[in-house]
Structure formats: C-alpha cells, structure tokens
Structure prediction request, 104 residues.
Amino acid sequence: MRNRQKLIDRNLGIIKHNLVVVGDFFARHADLFEWVRPQAGSMCFPRLLKGDIETFCDNLVRKAGVLLLPGSMYDDTQNHFRLGLGRKNLPQAVERLEEYLNKK
Prediction:
C-alpha cells in the first residue's frame, strides 16, 4: 500500500480528536459515566453509573438516533457500553447524546 502512512495519519488524527471530544464529554458527565482513556486502539468501554445500560442504549437509539452497543453484547455484566473512536462523525453523535441527556 503506497498510501499507508497517509491513511494511518488520517485515522490517528480522527482518533486523537475524538479522544478530546469524548474526554470532555465524560468530564462534564462524571456523575453518569466512568471511563478509562484507552492507551492504544480505537475503542473504549465506558460504564453507565445510573440505570440499566440496555434500557439506556435502547432509549438513546429510539429518541436520539445514537447507537451504542451495551456491554451485554460482549458478555459484560457491569453496565459498560462500546464506544468506537474512529468515526469522523463522532463529535456529532456526542452532541446528540448530550442533547438527549439534557432533556432528561
């Protein structure tokens, strides 16, 4: 692949930007979520501190159009959800998630 470095740089740029967006979001909502910033990779598994994660994810997709996969899809029983950091539209999804939380 002749353009591999270009692709790597592009993807790392997206992930680094999204880490800032997500980090700021979780800092504002530390009463609802806990997370560990990933040291490598493009995914994290934050934890919902209040309520049931499956209900939260179901309501979120129905009412805000934001899809998060509950950890139960991965045999996790600790109220975690999967959050991919490699999408270019993640800031818009976080914005919609924030709007959803502010309406509650």
User: Anything to note?
Assistant: Helices lie at 4-28, 53-64, 90-103.
